[in-house]
Amino acid sequence: MFRRLFSQFRNSSLVHATGIYTFTGIINGSVIFFLLPILTRYLSPEEYGLVSMFRVLVSFAFPLIGFFQSVGREYFDRERLDFPAYVANVLLTIFVNAGMVGIILYLLSGSIYNLTSFPAVWLWAVLLFALGKSLVQSVLVLWRVQVKPKPYGSFQISQSLTAFVMAIVLVVALKLGWKGAIKADAFAMGLFGLLAIYFIHRAGLIRLSFNLSYIRDIFLFSAPLILHSWGRTIVTMADRVFITKMVGIGDTGLYAAGYQVGMIIFLVTQSFNNAWVPYLFGRLKEDDERSKLKIVRFTYIYFSCVLGAALVLGLIAPRFIAFFLGDRFAASSSYVFWIALGFAFNSMYWMMANYLFYVRKTYIIAIITGLSSVLNIFLNYNFVGRFGAIGSAYAAAITFFVIFLATWIISARVYRMPWGLRLK
Prior knowledge:
Layout: H1 2-10, H2 13-42, H3 45-65, H4 69-74, H5 83-107, H6 109-116, H7 123-145, H8 149-173, H9 177-202, H10 212-222, H11 224-236, H12 238-246, H13 249-262, H14 264-286, H15 289-325, H16 336-358, H17 362-387, H18 390-414
Helix pairs in contact: 2-8, 2-14, 3-7, 3-9, 3-11, 3-12, 3-13, 5-7, 7-8, 7-9, 8-9, 11-17, 12-13, 12-17, 13-15, 13-16, 14-15, 14-16, 15-16, 16-18, 17-18
């Protein structure tokens, strides 16, 4: 059965796109992976903790700015609208949102420092990174739905390598410490944000025409995803806040390093999902029962693979980390299995969430992740207090599983698929 199933996918665009996306994910993951031991040797756990808190703040600012998601869905119905004008209104919304977020960061700078220990004078880097990432994601979404994996991959790899080189120069050569690491991330993302606008314009996908109807559609689609993204940020990032406040910034650095290793699962599975979404949406539009059955069978095989990968990563982590990250970060290995398991559940969640995106019920995703973030806060508070920093890793794995299970149950109700493997 498996041989027949894979032969049916073999000659499809999915295989070609997945290969390129996976290669891109491997390269990007390798860049991040090989930068990690450099940072852990030139930064103390406390300094790496500040870099981690920078990423936490970006994760909260980015959803408020990045209203680009509707572009990917509307592309499949582009014949009913002026698509270049729609894209232009998306970009306009992003810049307006960035201005508002900048004001919010300024007004809350003191409170942010008290909560995260991140210096208020460096919040400009948070804004620059979040804005640049929003623009970058806009062009990546367009290339993904157009099934253009080559420019997608080239752009992402170039951005990662630029950030890597800048980090080497600023952290290693100029010895700027955590400040150099943050500058490298912010400046590289800002630069590629400008390049993203250039590529969108060159493709003829920007026609300046303010359209209130388009703005309304963009907000209706993307605004519910703020809660969704914040909920996911709480699940994936807020643990650092609990560890910082309840244990210490040094333990935050150790946890963040182990988290980066566990994220290997995410980097690989995200690459597959990038190729899977346009393939899935195309098959769902055909509304063919046999095609749906093939998708379900493939999904179950995918679930088995990602869970197995998490187990393998957890088993090899203890011996690997002491060598790769250095003695100061050897304790990071204790977090890897639980983080990898959490990201395996996360990848399974995305396979289910895609159906909700297809039927435009993004508010359901927002509700699920919002409620799950409350669960994660409760688990973090209790588990970190009882078990120490490892409690955050337990909380992450449990929360990701709950999100996956809830999304599967609800998506099965709003869009029928033969999850029982029966073909009527």
